[in-house]
Design a protein that fits this description.
CATH architecture: 3-Layer(aba) Sandwich
Largest sheet: 6 strands, mixed
Radius of gyration: 19 Å
Strand order of the largest sheet: 3-4-5-6-7-8
Strand content: 15-25%
Number of strands: 8
CATH topology: Trna Endonuclease, Chain: A, domain 1
Distance between the termini: 34 Å
CATH class: Alpha Beta
Helix content: 40-55%
Number of domains: 1
Number of helices: 6
Order of helices and strands: EEHEEEHHHEHEEH
């Protein structure tokens, strides 16, 4: 459903609404220290809590979910056997400590069965579209993939992404306000 603004009507994609709801849930309900999008490992949502890195992939359809397995098999193989991955690459400290999927309510039961086949350590968040950006609940809490603290490199990647998001939001707000002001001046 489109969200009305005083300038134009902009339809907001489901994936954007889920990201907003998930980030809000993790930061304010789960008390994460920080959250960002497209962070470490290009996660849809990355979060930091007590020096531990969390990754959440948002899947809005069964095909989207299945594509995760087809195109990111290497990632899930690494998460299934982190010690083997660490010996090969040395970047265990950038690997998330916990991993979850987030799906719309109508995919909940199906996704839970798929996750059980993939990796029983994975968690599941469920998004329900109940107005604005919707709401999130935790269906299954993720278990640790590993327990190491995030490295300085991983923290740097996360903080750079978080800072970029803040700058982009401020830039968008600046140009929106500038455009609004210019429109008001034209009316005079």
């Amino acid at each position: 459903m489109p969200v009305e603004t005083d300038i134009i009507s902009i339809p907001i994609q489901t994936s954007v609404k889920i990201k907003l709801a998930l980030m809000y849930f993790l930061r304010f309900h789960q008390q994460f220290d920080a959250v960002c999008t497209e962070g470490v490992w290009n996660a849809d949502v990355s979060g930091l809590k007590n020096g531990k890195l969390y990754e959440v992939e948002i899947k809005i359809s069964k095909n989207d979910f299945k594509n995760e397995l087809r195109h990111k098999k290497w990632k899930h193989d690494s998460f299934a056997n982190p010690d083997k991955h660490f010996q090969a690459s040395g970047d265990l400290y950038e690997m998330p400590n916990k991993f979850s999927f987030c799906v719309p309510l109508d995919m909940e039961e199906w996704a839970l069965k798929e996750i059980d086949k993939m990796n029983i350590r994975y968690g599941l968040f469920v998004w329900e579209d109940n107005g604005d950006w919707g709401s999130i609940r935790c269906r299954r809490t993720p278990m640790h993939i590993h327990t190491k603290q995030i490295s300085k490199k991983g923290m740097s990647i996360f903080l750079k992404r978080l800072t970029s998001e803040v700058i982009n939001l401020k830039t968008d707000k600046f140009f929106w306000l500038k455009g609004k002001l210019q429109n008001e001046v034209k009316k005079l």
